[in-house]
Amino acid sequence: MNNKNTFERIYDIVRQIPCGKVATYGQVALKAGNPRWSRVVGYALHVNPDPSTIKCHRVVNRNGETSKAFAFGGEDVQRMLLEEEGVGFLPDGRVDMEKYLWRD
Questions:
Q1: Minimal CA–CA distance to 62: which of 39, 46, 43, 34?
Q2: How confident is the model at residue 74 (pLDDT cuts 50, 70, 90)?
Q3: What are residue 61's phi and psi, to 5 degrees?
Q4: Which residue from 4, 20, 26, 43 puts its CA 20 to 30 A from 33's CA?
Q5: Measured between alpha carbons, how far is 29 from 42 in angstroms, rounded to an integer?
């Protein structure tokens, strides 16, 4: 894993997030090797080269909020993709992190 670049390391982590779960930008950053890379994770996901295998819709902010700038058609598209996988949302529109946060 050391010979991979930062984005490749991030993509490797995002590929591991199971269907029906979400991870935070910070969680992905920490697992990719640097807890300060949260914004880098966002940049990497924005230029995702393979959305069919790198399911970036599974990454939300620490409060369970979907991205306002979701790359695949807007905020509602990210929510729709998560709901299709069975991810539940709280009445205020955030992901229910107690139930759906990826813990490995």
A1: 39
A2: low
A3: -80, 175
A4: 20
A5: 10
